[in-house]
Amino acid sequence: MISKNQVKWVRQLELKKNRRREGLFVAEGPKVVGDLLQAGFTAKALFSTREREDAQTVTDDELRRLSFLQHPQEILGVFHIPEQPESLSTLGNASSPLGNTSSTLGNAPYADGLCLALDGVQDPGNLGTIIRIADWFGIKAIYCSPDTADAYNPKVVQATMGSLAHVPVVYCQLTELLAHVRCPIYGTLLDGDNIYRQELAPQGIIVMGNEGNGISQAVRSLITHRLLIPNFHTAHETAESLNVAIATAITCSEFRRRGI
């Protein structure tokens, strides 16, 4: 039987300030929880409607009281949030959970291929979908500006469908990161050049911008390759732009289509 304090403890993690204070986040469902455990994430607590040696057994009603989902899925886990680097100078520290430094990106880890940089992406659903897209297309890491949605928001975690376990998400000042990298910096812009006619390098950072305002001016000034996903339907008026998650999928797909 779970206590009122346990319910309160789990439910308070819906708020970012509480997740930051506790250093914890919630994941739900066998797929998401299983992938996080397999990837080495440390569980503070597990609650399951099926008997498990590593979990507290709860009833369906108790799981509903804990859950953030309309239809709870058998198991809920409270996990430790991986430590974030205090500054970019610590990103390549061997003792950091973020891994070793790659020379192609200066002090940035996971840069022996393609990385994403998200500049102010604020919708949790978009962020979760982008993390899932990054996992599918083999993106090495996602760098997020401080004003990007929290990757450990319950809505984001569920939208990733377990991909949060496979793709490192690092929050940092993008201008600091991009100013020191030694690789192409791609940005999707309405005044960019047709992506299908551009050379695309096997290493680099792809910048995706805010849902309403796009890429900020400060970050835009650091982009070395401006890309445009063209609109092929010119016979009549169409949408002004693509959803950022869809644009991310198209961009990543074009890089991979070329065998990069």
Brief rundown of the structure:
With 260 residues, the chain is an alpha/beta fold. Helix content is 29%, strand content 20%.
Structure description:
α5 (124-136) links the parallel β5 (114-119) and β6. α5 (124-136) packs parallel to α9. The strands form two sheets. Strands 7-6-5-9-8-10 form a six-stranded parallel sheet, covered by helices on one side. A four-stranded mixed sheet has the order 1-4-2-3. It has helices at residues 4-11, 16-22, 30-38, 60-66, 124-136, 154-159, 174-180, 217-220, 244-257, and strands spanning 24-28, 43-48, 56-57, 75-80, 114-119, 142-144, 169-171, 185-194, 204-209, 225-228. It has 260 residues and is α/β, with parallel strands linked by helices. It is elongated. It contains nine helices and ten strands. Residues 89-110 have low confidence and may be disordered.
Which tags fit this structure?
single chain; alpha/beta; 260 residues
What secondary-structure arrangement, pairings included, does this model have?
Elements: H1 4-11, H2 16-22, E1 24-28, H3 30-38, E2 43-48, E3 56-57, H4 60-66, E4 75-80, E5 114-119, H5 124-136, E6 142-144, H6 154-159, E7 169-171, H7 174-180, E8 185-194, E9 204-209, H8 217-220, E10 225-228, H9 244-257
Parallel strand pairs: 2-3, 5-6, 5-9, 6-7, 8-9, 8-10
Antiparallel strand pairs: 1-4, 2-4
Helix pairs in contact: 5-9
Instruction: Let me know the number of strands.
Output: 10
Overall mean pLDDT score? 88
Oligomer: single chain
Our estimate of the beta-strand percent is 15-25%
Give the low-confidence spans: 89-110
From the spread of the alpha carbons, the general shape counts as elongated
Helix fraction, binned, reads 25-40%
SS-derived structural category: alpha/beta
Question: How many angstroms separate the termini?
Answer: 52 Å
**Order of helices and strands, N to C?**
HHEHEEHEEHEHEHEEHEH
Largest sheet: 6 strands, parallel
Count of separate DSSP helical elements: 9
Radius of gyration: 20 Å
The neighbouring-strand order within the major sheet is 7-6-5-9-8-10
